[in-house]
Specification:
heterodimer, A: alpha/beta, Pyruvate Kinase, Chain: A, domain 1, five-stranded mixed sheet, 5 helices, 6 strands, B: alpha+beta, ATP Synthase, domain 1, 2 domains, 42% strand
Chain lengths: 287, 137
Amino acid sequence: MANTKEVRKQISSIKNTQKITSAMEMVAASKIRKTQDVMLLGRPYSEKIKEVISHIANSSSEYSHPFFEDRKVKKACFIVVSTDKGLCGGLNINLFKNVIAKAAELKKDGVESCFALIGVKASGFFKAIGGEIVAKVEMLGDQPDPDNLIGLTKVVLDKHKNGEIDEAYLCANSFVNTMTQQPKVDQLIPLPVMENDDSAPTHWDYIYEPEAKELLNGLLTRYIESLIYQAVVENKACEQAAKMIAMKNATENAGELIKELELLYNNVRQAAITQELSEIVGGAAAV
Amino acid sequence: MKSIKVSIVSSSEEIYSGEATMVFATGTLGELGIAPGHTPLLTGLAPGPVRVQDGNDEKTFFCSGGFIEVQPDIVTFLSDTAERADSLDEAEAIKAKEQAEKDLSDKNDKIDYAKAAAQLAEAAARLKTIQKLRKNQ
């Protein structure tokens, strides 16, 4: 039977762990608010640029951009947004499962896949399964800078321009509420057709200065960048929420473990006392 | 007096949103003055000040390049958060690619660590189960 000292040591070590997990829970809870604020701050831009793009799509433009074209798909690129740190439950792995499922589905149609990764966890996972990684960005911090994503976006868009890939998907968790995060795989290129605004007149076009092609190229690049940025900040909010829940569970589990161990400790202590007593009684009887 | 809706946004925040009687900005092809009822226009925005006039009130904002969309009753400034040039974008792209390549050549890094951590977790879980079984005997 275990001795009391050993059990006591175990209890105190679990108590320490519990302190850490409950501190992490509180940190995550306070960070959720901040990350949600960042998420909301970026919304106006993505809404505005979406508006502008839908105006362009509705106008009878003189130039049609490759991002809107459907072409025969030979290879697809997945942009996977993950966290840099662990301890956030099944957040990443659920997303990766969805990505793998989608890639397997494409594979059946003879479509190859490659990956552009954001976050340490994604690069660990996709390297382990031997995926082709074309670009990677890590350690974006709690308030990701949109500028850090420019490079990754450019790699993907260049590949599309050169015909190396024909489709791109954006994979990230979407923030439903603190308890629920939904892994999503959305098509990025070709851009899904936007709903037509019926009230707008149909036969008009912008004056483009300087040229339609150049402007549209720039705008669509910005649009895709903004979509990716939004996904990254939303994933950040998901990370903090998932972390809070995971740490809450860990704290509760630690509490249960401590209860069990305390019971064991009392048992052991009582057994020792009983033994000692019976020894004394036995000794007294022998005299 | 007729007015036009102005919004200035960058990807990380909304800079300004409101009504104006006149807006001045520097487009990539030169100075622009935008009054209500302007014809639809799409143009680049050069780094520089954007002045928003509402009656006698005037506000000035700084934008570091981007795009301007003008509709008869709306003008939208999509501002970049950083200076953008093809060469700079190229450098960023190369950086992202290199990161990916470095990862492939690097054998003993975090991935092995992740594997070890997973194995440790499994071993710990096993130990715990064994302990539980023993206790119930």
